[in-house]
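Lab notebook, bench 4. Still working through the backlog of constructs that have no structural model yet. Next entry is a single chain of 80 residues. Request: give me the structure tokens for it.
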Amino acid sequence: MKAERREPGDFDAQISEILDQLTDDMSIWQDLTSRFRAYVFCGLFMEEGNEGISLSNGTLQRLAERGLTIDFDIYVSSDE
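Model written out:
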């Protein structure tokens, strides 16, 4: 699954966009995450070095309920 690109980024909306396309049946999630490594990958392309991101409690809860971890790769423009 993939979320639409947004500028500026909106991680809560993008993660919800992905999760909304998947099952809410927690028994399926429990089975999948007991057998496989399951995670949400986010690539962050920052314009400046001190930008930040945040995730809401609701988004974190939805990830945790499904046994999903979240991985970030962070890239900063090196034009300086």
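Notes after review: The radius of gyration is 14 Å. Strands lie at 39-46, 69-76. Flag for follow-up if needed.
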